[in-house]
């Protein structure tokens, strides 16, 4: 008797979704659109940096130095030999990100002295970009030094060795994170569809009078959306793999498990929020939104967690996406499996169970 | 004219009656600025370093010391097994591993230039790059320190002529990412609040049926629009001020440029987001739908606004798309005013773009409005 009603609840949800083609379109197309758009957009690799060069020496040496800069795609020379007074306005008009100034008597100073500085003024409003530019210029300076001097003695060599992702493609890092963000959006979207539709149609009461345990009602509502969410996640992972060449080095089984658990956790959060904000739509939406921002900003998606102050690192520990990202990056890029990733897996499962349990309790109390 | 005044007064009464609005306008911005201002940082700090020292000599110890007795690096531990080091990297327990070979000191003094391996996790390419750059700085200092101890190389060193790069970092000399992020947060808050609040407000009227009541009054469509815009512009303006104060008091980040220019630009910007909000509400039937559409627009515009990913890095096609995003312009404007003190004369293009958006969306909304009701 109980089993039949349970199955009926699950099937009912599926029918509801099927009969709403608009929503169906949105939940299928939107994730794809986001993946493609942001997969291409989110990159920290810089290019075409607008640069101004000021050559105060006009000597073979200075020209050789500038040639090194012009030879790379990274810098795009937009102007030359501007006036000192114009520097401020150049930056305020955003005509260039950096100005390279080769001092007067550069060649002579180079010949006579140990080291000769080349001045570079960088717009540091984006400190990340500024560092990047500075490092790149240091490399060019080193290259020039090697060409100017017969041999540069170093006492020891430092050889960098990059594990995984040796080409340092930022898409390998971002795309799994993007998957996490998109799935969270979809989960919260799905939950509110589920709950609100019920309330709008007033069928809530009908379910409540049936002889089913509240936990079964909750579970019956969640399962169809877990399956839909899972389907969507597989879809975007396939696209991610073929479009962005993100590898899947580890176990597919582990990958699928983590997807299901993550979607479940997203749905549990949404469900829980909806059970505690019965009356106010605003409150529910606002709180749902409150889950989006931490997921994007504090889960390690873009910004490293280790750089955050300690209390905020604790906050990121309760964001499901944080743990999911460790799993998905580990499985896809490093080939780690359940053996190493069981803590994160356990946390995701625990969160879902906890929240679903709380929702059931809340639900039961509204019955009485 | 007087009709608009009454309409504005009604809106304010509605706002004040809804405590959620007060929370959204005053408390949430401060909380978000605190939370995000501290959390979001592209600075790479607290880099944990693991060591494999196969030489255990005074020089290798000096090397370890140089890398760990440093502001950016934290010593995590040593092991004599490279595989353990790699496992530490995998688990995220360290971000940098150093492997010092056997006979390091001996080879160094004899001028044989031994190789020290710097092992990095390449998954987060950006952080790996930054870690490598910091490590390189330590290396340079060490090279200078040890050169006198290596006679075979010293003569060659004396004959060197090298160039160095002397960077001058303008507008943010300490290279703190928080200076860049906080104005961005303010822009995000303004967008969020203006978008959502307008979309919800009109749809709420639709749901409650009060919209039809407004329609039978002698109010014209244009006046209705203006009556909705003014209170929300004021709310947005208040929000900007609260945010500016919060940013200043909490992070010590104050506006370098002209506050008035910022006020003007935020008023224009809110106009464009209010326009989109109202346009959204003409498309939605329920408050929930309105919130979703506004929400999706927000997420799209946030990631394409230049907030955390510079627009210049994006492929050209996508850069083209960002021109349709009003938030992109405001992001530029607020950062320019906050950090560089850029005057209005260099920001007018962005202002015009935002204004065009505002006007276009209002016109569109007005047109849709009449089609639905009338």
UniProtKB/TrEMBL annotation, chain B:
List each copy of the ABC transmembrane type-2 domain by range: 147-372
Name the membrane topology term. Multi-pass membrane protein
Which keywords appear in this protein's UniProt record, sorted alphabetically? Cell membrane, Membrane, Transmembrane, Transmembrane helix, Transport
Q: Which GO terms describe its cellular component?
A: plasma membrane
**GO molecular function term, any single one:** ABC-type transporter activity
First and last residue of the signal peptide? none
The main place the protein resides is: membrane
Q: Where in the cell is it found?
A: Cell membrane
Keyword set includes Amino-acid biosynthesis: no
Q: Name one Pfam family in it.
A: ABC2_membrane_3
Tell me where on the tree of life, at the top rank, the source sits: Bacteria
Membrane-spanning intervals of the chain = 20-40, 181-203, 234-256, 262-280, 292-311, 351-369
What the record says about family reads:
Belongs to the ABC-2 integral membrane protein family.
Recorded protein name is: ABC transporter permease
């Amino acid at each position: 008797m109980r089993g039949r009603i349970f199955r009926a609840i699950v099937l009912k949800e599926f029918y509801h979704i099927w009969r709403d083609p608009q929503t169906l379109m949105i939940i299928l197309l939107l994730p794809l659109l986001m993946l493609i758009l942001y997969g291409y957009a989110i990159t920290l690799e810089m290019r075409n940096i607008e640069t101004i060069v000021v050559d105060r020496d006009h000597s073979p040496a200075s020209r050789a130095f500038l040639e090194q800069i012009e030879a790379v795609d990274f810098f795009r020379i937009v102007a030359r030999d501007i006036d000192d007074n114009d520097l401020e306005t150049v930056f305020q008009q955003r005509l260039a990100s950096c100005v390279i100034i080769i001092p007067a008597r550069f060649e002579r100073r180079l010949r006579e002295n140990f080291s000769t500085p080349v001045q570079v003024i960088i717009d540091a409003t984006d400190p990340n970009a500024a560092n990047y530019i500075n490092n790149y210029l240091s490399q060019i300076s080193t290259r020039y030094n090697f060409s100017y001097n017969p041999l540069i003695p170093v006492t020891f060599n430092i050889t960098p060795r990059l594990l995984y992702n040796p080409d340092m493609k930022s898409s390998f890092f971002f795309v799994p994170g993007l998957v996490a963000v998109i799935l969270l959006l979809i989960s919260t979207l799905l939950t509110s569809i589920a709950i609100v539709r019920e309330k709008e149609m007033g069928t809530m009461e009908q379910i409540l009078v049936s002889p089913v345990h509240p936990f079964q009602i909750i579970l019956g509502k969640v399962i169809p959306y877990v399956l839909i969410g899972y389907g969507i996640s597989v879809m975007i992972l396939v696209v991610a793999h073929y479009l962005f060449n993100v590898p899947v080095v580890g176990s597919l089984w582990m990958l699928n498990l983590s997807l299901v658990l993550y979607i479940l956790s997203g749905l549990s959060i949404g469900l829980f929020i909806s059970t505690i904000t019965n009356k106010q739509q605003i409150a529910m939406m606002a709180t749902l939104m409150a889950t989006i921002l931490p997921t994007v900003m504090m889960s390690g998606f873009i910004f490293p967690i280790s750089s955050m102050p300690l209390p905020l690192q604790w906050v990121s520990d309760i964001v499901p996406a944080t743990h999911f990202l460790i799993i998905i990056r580990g499985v896809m890029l490093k080939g780690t499996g359940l053996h190493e990733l069981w803590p994160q897996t356990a946390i995701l499962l625990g969160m879902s169970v906890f929240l679903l349990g709380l929702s059931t309790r809340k639900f039961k109390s509204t019955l009485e | 004219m007087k009709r608009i005044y009454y309409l504005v007064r009604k809106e304010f009464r509605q706002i004040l009656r809804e405590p959620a609005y007060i929370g959204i306008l005053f408390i949430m911005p401060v909380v978000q600025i605190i939370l995000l201002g501290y959390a979001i940082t592209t600075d790479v700090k607290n880099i944990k370093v693991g060591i494999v020292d196969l030489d255990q000599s005074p020089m290798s110890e000096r090397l370890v010391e140089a890398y760990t007795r440093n502001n950016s690096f934290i010593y995590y531990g040593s092991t004599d097994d490279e595989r353990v080091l790699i496992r530490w990297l995998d688990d995220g327990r360290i971000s940098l591993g150093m492997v010092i070979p056997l006979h390091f000191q001996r080879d160094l003094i004899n001028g044989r230039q031994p190789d020290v391996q710097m092992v990095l996790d390449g998954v987060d390419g950006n952080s790996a790059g930054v870690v490598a750059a910091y490590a390189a700085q330590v290396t340079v200092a060490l090279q200078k320190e040890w050169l006198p101890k290596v006679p075979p190389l010293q003569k060659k060193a004396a004959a060197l002529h090298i160039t160095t790069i002397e960077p001058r970092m303008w507008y943010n000399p300490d290279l703190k990412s928080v200076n860049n992020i906080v104005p961005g947060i303010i822009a995000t808050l303004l967008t969020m609040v203006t978008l959502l609040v307008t979309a919800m407000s009109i749809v709420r009227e639709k749901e409650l049926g009060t919209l039809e009541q407004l329609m039978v009054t002698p109010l014209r469509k244009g006046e209705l629009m203006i009556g909705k815009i003014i209170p929300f512009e004021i709310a947005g303006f208040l929000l900007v001020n609260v945010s500016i104060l919060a940013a200043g008091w909490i992070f010590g980040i104050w506006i370098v440029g002209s506050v008035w220019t910022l006020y003007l630009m935020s008023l224009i910007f809110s106009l464009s987001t209010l326009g989109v909000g109202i346009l959204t509400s003409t498309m939605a039937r329920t408050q929930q739908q309105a919130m979703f559409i506004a929400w999706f627009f927000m997420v799209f515009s946030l990631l394409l606004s230049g907030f955390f990913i510079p627009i210049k890095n994006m492929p050209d096609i996508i850069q083209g798309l960002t021109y349709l995003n009003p938030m992109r312009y405001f992001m530029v404007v607020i950062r320019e005013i906050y950090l560089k003190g850029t005057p209005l004369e260099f920001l007018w293009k962005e202002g015009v773009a935002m204004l065009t958006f505002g006007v276009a969306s209002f016109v569109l909304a007005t047109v849709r409005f009449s089609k639905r009701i009338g």
